[in-house]
Q: What sequence folds into this?
């Protein structure tokens, strides 16, 4: 059971319901972690804004999911791991790729560099080496791409913390942490 109140359609204010309606129209469902976020409509709007901007960037959807899987495993967030396993499969990631992502890598050489950089950013709280930046650039990532990788790390750390702090009920097929 969640340790932070889950806002439902029955308990939502007009503002919260409007946000739920917008989410429902885009995703077809309002995931439980967004129902936790909805306790603060300002926080939910901020997250949705960041999420929307981050998903319009240069990183492809598969790489974004790879980073999310790596962050969920690294930060021990079972909710996010379950969600991004489902979303990753829907986006086209294989089971073997998901396993590699959870281990901080990828079967795709370029994506492996992005996932490795994301893992290092989280592990070292941003204190990455110049060699890691050069490796990313040599793999074809621009400084804009690198900033987007950093953005996705930050966004995933936020959702991982929310998932763990709230102990939100998993509403995706459950995946256990390694």
A:
């Amino acid at each position: 059971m969640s340790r932070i109140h889950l806002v439902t359609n029955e308990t939502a204010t007009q503002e919260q319901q409007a946000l739920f309606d917008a989410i429902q129209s885009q995703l077809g469902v309002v995931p439980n972690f967004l129902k936790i976020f909805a306790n603060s409509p300002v926080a939910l709007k901020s997250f949705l804004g960041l999420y929307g901007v981050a998903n319009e960037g240069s990183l492809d959807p598969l790489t974004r999911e790879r980073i999310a899987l790596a962050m969920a495993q690294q930060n021990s967030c079972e909710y996010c791991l379950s969600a991004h396993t489902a979303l990753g499969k829907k986006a086209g990631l294989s089971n073997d790729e998901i396993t590699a992502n959870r281990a901080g890598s990828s079967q795709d050489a370029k994506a492996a560099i992005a996932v490795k950089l994301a893992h290092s950013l989280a592990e070292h709280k941003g204190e990455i080496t110049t060699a890691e930046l050069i490796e990313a650039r040599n793999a074809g990532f621009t400084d804009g791409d690198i900033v987007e990788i950093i953005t996705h790390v930050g966004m995933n750390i936020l959702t991982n913390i929310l998932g763990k702090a709230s102990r939100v009920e998993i509403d995706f097929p459950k995946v256990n942490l390694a």
Observations:
- The mean pLDDT is 96.
- The radius of gyration is 16 Å.
